[in-house]
Every structure is written in structure tokens, then in C-alpha cells.
Amino acid sequence: MFHRKLVLPAIAGVIALTGSLLAAHSATADTGGLKVQAGDNPPAGVQPVGAGTGWNIKWWDEFNGSAVDWGTKWNGNSSALPDAGRGNKGNQQLEYNLDRNCTEANGAVTMTAKREQYQAPSGTTYDWTSCLLTSTASGGVTFKYGYMESRAKLTYDLRDAQGGTVADTRGFWPGFWTWQASGVDSWQETDVYEQYSDRPRHLYLTSHAGAKGGCEVDLGFDPGADYHVYGADISASGTKFYIDGTLICSVAGAPTENTNIIEDLYVYSKPGFDPNPATMSAKKSIDYVRFWQR
Ligand SMILES: [Ca+2]
After folding, report:
1. Which of 122, 154, 181, 276 could form a Cys-Cys staple with 223, CB 3.0–4.6 A?
2. How far is the CA of 143 from the centre of ligand 1 (A)?
3. In terms of residue numbers, what domain contains 41?
4. DSSP symbols for 138-175
């Protein structure tokens, strides 16, 4: 989740996920809609979408409760952000991440980015708040290899001060990624997806670890219109990126040290790509996060 000026050199090419490619994979394509289920457990024996079988689920959050599992599964601060783990203006981020901006209800956790002045304990003032989830809590998950998957609806529901819809979607930078675990002193990062919402259908899938590598994809759907499944098979021999069960690209990059999962909804500060002056809020919702190993 470093801004795209740093991401571009690792890009292998742009892949168009066209209608015909989606049709060819219709057996595994996600059909949308929030699939609310009883309890906080995934379906028995559930496998990653489209990434083979033989996986054992090791950790999950189905977000089917009434509050985020702060301190048990998740923490709201990460060592990736130098201002108390919650702000990182040096990385073109406008937001300070507060737990209160993550809410869990109706089978999903929703992150809300809000245009509001907030003074951090450091004294730095931010113009936006948002929130992040990272799996560093005592009942979280730390790993080097495995399959991580999230079913989510990316930047959506942009609103102005009167509560009206804002058509200009720019200014948001949601991601689902990993970051080096506590005590690891080397760059270990896998970005299962990054979206810059000025081009909402264009995602960046990147390994910043080991041999590195990544690709860009033009989706055949609007990822803010409904839920879709984003996953990565991270192994010693490389990383494979999947969307709705379709293998998008394989790269040689793979971590060499332990990592934790992060979900976020950053607010992007690059001039011309920052939020429309009318935009007061935006959302991202997550149906679940699941992690498997073989
Ligand atoms: Ca759910």
C-alpha cells in the first residue's frame, strides 16, 4: 500500500478482465449480493473460490456479529503507519484511522471514510478519518504462506454535505494486503488488490516481497456496485492473484518472513486524484476475510 509512483516499476502489464473472460469462468464467477449466514463460522470445509481443493481453513472473520472483534481478532493500528499506527501523510494518505469508523452489522463490516478535522495525539491535524483492520491481535493470524481471501464491495456510496450522491468517485484507495509482522525488519508486503477510485475498475495486484512482481487488471464489472472475491495464493515459489475465482496473474515475489493481514480504506492525497471537494464520505464493505493453508 505504497502510492502508485512506487508501484509502477513492478508492473508486468495490464490485463483486461473482459466480459468473455468472465463468461468463460461463469462456473466460479461471483454473482453478487451479501450472503448473510447464521453464526460466525464459515461453511464447513469451505475452500478458496477457484483456487483448487485440499485447503484447511485456519482463520477467519465472517463479520456476522454486532461489533468488530477489536483486540481479539483485529487491531486498528499498524506499524505500516508511522503516526501511532493510524496516520501516514508521507505516503499520500489524508486520513487518520479510528476504530469508530469501522462498524459491523448485517453480515459485513463497513469502513466509512469521513471528511472531518481530527487532531491526532501527535498534534498532527488530519482532514479525513477512516479505519483499518489488521490481524495482529492476540487471536489474529500471522503467517508467511497460505491463501488469503476477502469478499468485499470497494469504494461506494460517496455522499455530499446534503446527503446526495457524488458521481465523481475519485479520492479513495482501498486495499487488502499483508505487512511484515512485529519484529520483522525487512519489507514483506503482498497487495491482493489496491484500487485508486478515480479509475474504479482498474486494480493493482502486487508482491513487494522477495523477487517482487505484479500486474494491473481492468475489471469487467464495477467493484463498488456489488461484492466480489479477491484472493492470493502466497507460497515459497511465488504469488498467484485471483478475482472471483479467475487466476489473474502469477508472479515470482513471495515473502521470506511472517506477515499480518490488513484491510483499509485510505484517502488519497495526490492533487487531482484526491476527493472531489463535494465529497464528504465514502464506504467499503467486507463480507468476510478467510485464510487457509494446505
Ligand atoms: Ca459475512
Report:
1. 154
2. 23
3. 4-293
4. TTS-EESSEEEEEEEEEEEEEE-TTSPBPS---SEEEE
